[in-house]
Specification:
By secondary structure, this protein is of the alpha/beta class. The chain folds into two domains: 192 residues, no CATH class; 255 residues, Rossmann fold (3-Layer(aba) Sandwich), CATH 3.40.50.1460. It is built from 15 helices and eight strands. The chain has a six-stranded mixed beta sheet, with helices on both faces. The protein has a two-stranded antiparallel ribbon with strand order 1-2. α6 runs antiparallel to α7.
Amino acid sequence: MTENEYAENAALVPPAAVVETPAAPLNPDTPDTPQPLSWGHRLTQATRLWLFAGWRVLTFRMPSWQGLDAHPLAVAAVLALGYLTVLGVQRGLISGQAEFYPSAWLEGWASQAVMLWLCWVVIRSVREGDAPKASTANLFMAISVAGVLHALMESALLLVTHWWITPIAQWRDDVSWAFYIAMTGWLGLAQLRTLVGTAGNLLGRVSPLVLLPLSLWIALSLQPVVFWWESSAEPKPRYQGISLDDEVVFEQPALLARTLEAVQAPHADRVNLYSITYAPYASQDVFMNESRVVTETLEKRFSAQGHTVQLVLNPATGTTLPWAVPIALRKSIQRMAAVMDRDRDVLFLHLTSHGARSGELAVNAWPMKSEPVTPALLRQWLDEAGIRWRVISISACYSGSWIDALVSDETLLMTAADADHTSYGCGSKSPLTFFGQAMYVDALASTWSFEAAHAQARQLIETREKDVGKTDGYSNPQLRMGTAIRPVLERLAEQQASLAK
């Protein structure tokens, strides 16, 4: 074959084809192929990350925000876990039967709202362009997880101490306060460290110094979450409310008028004791009972017959006693001032109900609407009426909060508790409160001195609270004696001792 023929034939032969071998199909079972995590694995991983973040907050270290995502359901679950922890430990600290208050689920949310607002303020303080350290949701979630971890540890300490070392009710006040301050301070400072460390400018770092104490104050004082109270073994009768039938509604104004008109003029040349009892909580008979017992004691021991008025809200007294509503109390004070010798005689006021740290006396007038009496209102009404000599007895939780507004040189003020503790014995089946029993049944049976009786009642109450295992500390009843009223009450005591002979 000539050279030309060879070239022609070669041109007819196609170049060797490049054979592409198709890629083998991916095998989903091969270990090198990344697989999506199951729902359970993702939940476990997220839980581990958030627990670690919460623990870092609680140990004064900044969380690592990488990989954290605060899902709304996760936030709700953490908040619910915090409430469940409180529910469990409160029940564990009550040895006997306890009464459950489901409305406690509605308490404490104002504190959470303030904390969420604070987290938003802190995150907004980070300037644009700076690397974001966290989102508002993540910061709130980390602080909330730290709060739950703190609550679990505090609960464990309380329960172990209560059941295996010393019941909480038997702790000395200084020990209780030290524990309370230490645990609250730990959580507050840890949260403050995280908030300040996340902030981006001065405003963001200063805001926690103002808003964090507000959140803690709301949670611990203004809206404490209380699920359980000790109760008796008998079932609680269902409260049906105040009767508002025609007879009661039309009788009440006339009943108040007749009661006030029946108040008699004072005995001449004698220190007369006039009294008003006020029991505005209709769903529990203990307050009605206490009004009756206090009135009977004053009539027996201080010759107060014809000088007493009972104001009571209770379904059983709708046609026999005037309602304990603010306008009735004000009119009663005015009537006493008009009848008594204001330069010589003494007005005794006994208010009995549940109490709040804010000083309001709880009202249960359903289905009516009635407003609570406050220390400032009571002081205003007494001053307007020109009542000079006053003995005021407040039988309620946190009743020490009434002292500052009512104290004066011409006033003796007695309370069932200080401003930071509950009183005791105001349950549905209690015949009398501990203060009512100790003061007006036990102590005043052997003395005409309110001061001496109160001192004796304090000792009786402390012993009885320890015996029943009161869990939140001694109620610590208070007394304030004005310098001017002391000789007036001494004359009253001497007079009654002489009459008793």
